Amino acid sequence: MQPSTIVILIVCILALASLLYGVLRKFSRMGWAAWQILFAWCITMTLDWLPEDASDGGRMAVGLAVFFGAVVGTLALGGAVRLAMLKRKTPAHPAWRFFDRVLGGITALLDYAVMALVVAGPVLTFCATAITPPSFFGNFFESGLWTNFLGKFALDLFLITIFFFAMRAGWRVGFARTLVIFIMMTLTLGCLVLAVFLTVAWGPMTKFAVSIGNAISGIDSAIGLAIGYTVVTLLLFVVFFILICVLGYFIVKLIRHIRFHYFWGFLDGVLGLAMAFAIVLVGTFAFYYLACALSNGAIFTPILSALDNVNIEQAAQYVEQIRQLIQTVTEYTEGLQDWLKCGPVSDAFRILCMRWVAV
What's the pTM value of the predicted model, to 2 decimals? Predict the structure, then answer.
């Protein structure tokens, strides 16, 4: 059996399993992320209609604005539709129950297809733009499906998916809960440091640790002393950690009470969404900046300048090896900018990061 036949068979089996799952699960009980992501993706595709003579700055600003609006809009629309369905009190019509299962199967298939495309999109675009495509792709990259559709928007789908799930998680968890988690982690680390400090610096705890070490017989005194200090540190840490858990319990109860209030709950969700968007945005810019710096060799400029100032004859061989390594890496990274152009929104990130790299 040919490898391509095996791949097609596996894909068909997974698709059938997804279809059966959706029919049994029903549309009304499933998540709608795939529909929302596709809707936002279609909105960002309209950026391809921007005039060709538009400035880079204008194209960048419009692209990022449409991208943010599309993700937030689809999240809000999906939430509004689900809320309306949950408030429905009348029994469902038999026709709706039938279509509920049919739509469930379609949604499950769509989830499967979208997730597969999200993963495959960056890989395919990288093969088509940054490196020489492997021979087994054949004429796929020359087909209209690729040149007019997938090749132009694949990276935008990947970005939309990342931002969509991050912002949805930020809305559901909320700003206050995320802040509490961060504070609790910080306090836990601080309690561990405090426990170590008290064990070493506070007389009663030091004496207690020494007495435990001396009570252990049959081992070296240094090892016994280390065990004593470890035991006392863990005991102090457990006491502090219990206090933190009690404090965290009351804080979480307070946050849940606030979330039940419509205004404060809405504000907490919006702030959590904005925080999630900001975190992912910073990470995205960092990735695009690194890719742009690799594509034009800016990241290697200070290294090459330092190598030019190396005058030690013994290091000449190593300097040349480093230069050859940089040259090899550059050959593989020159096409990164073409890869980042596979989507209007992705191109907007690229334009902005290229300006920073050029500074």
Answer: 0.70
